[in-house]
Amino acid sequence: MNALTVYLVIAAVLFSLGLFGVLMRRNLIAMLISLELMLNGASINFMAFNRFLAPEPAVGQIVTLFIMGLAAAEAAIGLSIILTLFRRLRSINIERARRLGG
Amino acid sequence: MTADFFTLGFAHTAFWILVGIVFAGAGIAVFPRNIIYNILGLVLCLAGVAGLYVYLGSLFLGLMQLLIYVGAICVAIVFAIMLSRPLHLEMPKRKMPKMVLGGFSVGIFLVSIVAVLWKTAWQAAPERSTDWSITTIGHMLLTRYSLVFELISLVLLVAIIGAILTAGFSRRLTS
């Protein structure tokens, strides 16, 4: 429980599950959800290194706060793009959005 | 001594239950086809990650995780779920080759990264300060990391204005 490796393995598994979701799902919102899982895996990594190794233990928390802010911005932009895409194509399936490519 | 042992055992058990909650939530967030289950699994997983932050020593970040992720981002995603296909329709089947290929590549990634972090002998920094209170975070945000702080606020502002532009005005412009 009090080992760095345990937290790193948890973060790696979380990241891999998110990656699997991004690769598998065709629903855009589901892909966004998987992306949040990947961001959380990265945050756990930062917090674990912050707790066990870092010379200044406050820096990891600051990085994690920045990740949260970026995730909020990403969610806002992603959801608005999905909304516009749904108005144009009447669907949020990623395969239907193929015609966006030139 | 025994009381100490009991407290420690309780903390261990609670930690592994927490890890189970995180993995179960992540599994629910990725595997079911129904998007409602996905978002509920994401909420479960993010709450578990907040608990992990408390175990890592930062109650503040656990609270921020609950506030920002569970309270704001998940609710925003729930608003967008109405765009998904109706739940009573039958789901099309998954393509098996795609599943196998995706699982294979993710497996390679996971095995390699776990092997790397198993092989590495992590070394702590020679001098570690022990101060990681909220006060220190605030001081560092306003002194050394002030540029990044301002940049994040700018990015958030631009993102919100962009979201309003893409989602709000396009209807008026197109119809």
Walk me through this protein's architecture.
The complex is a heterodimer of chains A (102) and B (175). Chain A is mainly alpha-helical and 102 residues long. Chain A contains three helices and no strands. Chain A has a single domain (3-101), classed as Helix Hairpins. The mean pLDDT of chain A is 87. With 175 residues, chain B is mostly helical. Chain B has a domain at 1-83: NADH-ubiquinone/plastoquinone oxidoreductase chain 6, subunit NuoJ (Four Helix Bundle (Hemerythrin (Met), subunit A), Up-down Bundle). Chain B contains six helices and no strands. Chain B has helices spanning 2-30, 35-55, 59-80, 96-119, 134-142, 146-174. Chains A and B meet through helix 1, helix 2 and helix 3 of A and helix 1, helix 2, helix 3, helix 4 and helix 5 of B.
Question: Assembly type of the shown chains?
Answer: heterodimer
Distance between the termini of chain A: 51 Å
C-alpha-based Rg of chain B, rounded = 22 Å
Tally of domains of chain A: 1
Order of helices and strands of chain B: HHHHHH
**CATH level-two architecture of the domain at 1-83 in chain B:** Up-down Bundle
Strand content of chain A: under 5%
The span between the termini of chain B is 74 Å
Number of strands of chain A: 0
Spatial shape of chain A: elongated
At CATH level 2, the architecture of chain A is: Orthogonal Bundle
Biggest interface, chains and residues, is: A-B, 68 and 84 residues
Mean pLDDT over the residues of chain A:
87
